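Appendix B. Raw example, untouched.
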Amino acid sequence: MNTAFRTLFLGVLAGLAGLAFAQERVNYLAVNGTLVSAAGPYYFIAQGDRRDAFAKARPLAKAMRLQVSVNVRGKRLRFSDGTTTAVFETTGSVPQGLATRTGALTVNGRPVSSPMAIVVEGVAYVAITPLVAAFGGVSPWNAANHVITIETDAHLPSGPSAPRTPARAGGSGGTGAPLA
């Protein structure tokens, strides 16, 4: 009994010590004002990238009210809202996927500069900024709240009193969202 208690106590103590070194999540993702913690954001820091924010494709698509499908054989990830179609090439290689290149994303058949979608252990991750821009939205970084705030086209203000600033579809695909 004494040995069992000691083993339990040491296990609890080791667990508490592990909590002291647990990594705190410092960045968040919101779509149209609602936090979407299941989607991310994620950064491929181990591969040297701290700039480009990625999200899990399926939860992000659901939050943005997009249909998503995967063509495993063709290595494509397709998003659609019925009017616009965005297709990402996919790769299992994180370093290859992080490289921005024209044609890694096509929007209604037109090539756009973007990172590829990255598939890790069966989960597809997509660069946030180019996906959001493909559907007319914006995805600015809110440094004060540590959140990438996605506003889809339907939720953006319109009219002469509220000019729209289009999201950058090209470039690195990053949101400029630093890790805090």
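End of appendix B.
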